[in-house]
Q: What sequence folds into this?
């Protein structure tokens, strides 16, 4: 797809998003339309991502539907619920909602308020994730340690593949967040690793593919090397406390 085709597709999707918000979400103050279709990079299975903001709601929700032939994933908020999820995203290290708001095209009448919130989201993205401290960081180290230890034993190929699949996301998170970059879920993990360090991303990909094929040695070596950057294995002394309200009377 050339640049003109990408631009035309993005404009078609934006026009469909305008009609969708006007028809389905009457009363919304504004929305953000985003996703791969907006970038002209979508496939036949790509969807429009919509973040729709009302003046006030009892609660936020999300829903999926088809509009004018386009699959749509919509996230419905007011400003307070949107702020909650933006900050929760930033705290998690995986800024899915932050990225949608920061990079989306504004739809609707209240462009001034939409632009203000978008600028805050863009500033959150630019600031990067919080330093690697706290329970979430220790849990990632522990999970990588635990799964890496599972790869050390003699196992049949199908078990090595299953362990590698489980290790993929946690190790990718540790690599990205440990270098001050945002983490990503699913397809975004390899994209963000490639942006951060193409050589490391290629090594990760090759090691994972070998592990899925039943040879986990290189993926294990990569996990051990990453753990060494973070003080080594996390096992002895690890402690995770349950919430005080995690109980149920008989």
A:
């Amino acid at each position: 797809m050339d640049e003109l085709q990408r631009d035309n597709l993005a404009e078609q999707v934006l026009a469909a998003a305008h009609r969708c918000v006007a028809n389905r979400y009457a009363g919304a103050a504004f929305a953000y339309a985003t996703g791969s279709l907006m970038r002209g990079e979508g496939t036949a299975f790509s969807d429009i991502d919509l973040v729709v903001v009302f003046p006030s709601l009892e609660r936020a929700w999300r829903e999926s539907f088809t509009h004018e032939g386009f699959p749509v994933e919509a996230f419905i908020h007011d400003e307070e619920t949107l702020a909650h999820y933006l900050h929760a995203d930033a705290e998690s290290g995986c800024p899915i909602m932050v990225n949608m708001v920061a990079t989306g095209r504004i739809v609707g009448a209240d462009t001034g308020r939409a632009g203000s919130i978008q600028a805050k989201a863009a500033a959150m993205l630019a600031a990067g994730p919080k330093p690697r401290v706290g329970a979430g960081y220790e849990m990632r180290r522990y999970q990588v340690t635990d799964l890496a230890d599972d790869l050390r034993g003699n196992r049949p190929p199908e078990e090595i593949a299953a362990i590698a699949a489980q290790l993929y996301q946690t190790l990718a998170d540790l690599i990205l967040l440990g270098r001050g970059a945002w983490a990503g879920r699913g397809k975004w993990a390899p994209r963000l690793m490639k942006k951060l360090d193409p050589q490391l991303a290629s090594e990760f990909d090759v090691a994972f593919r070998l592990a899925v094929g039943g040879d986990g040695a290189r993926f294990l070596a990569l996990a051990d090397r990453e753990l060494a950057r973070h003080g080594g294995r996390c096992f002895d002394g690890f402690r995770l406390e349950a919430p005080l309200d995690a109980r149920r009377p008989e």
User: Anything to note?
Assistant: Residues 135-229 form one domain.
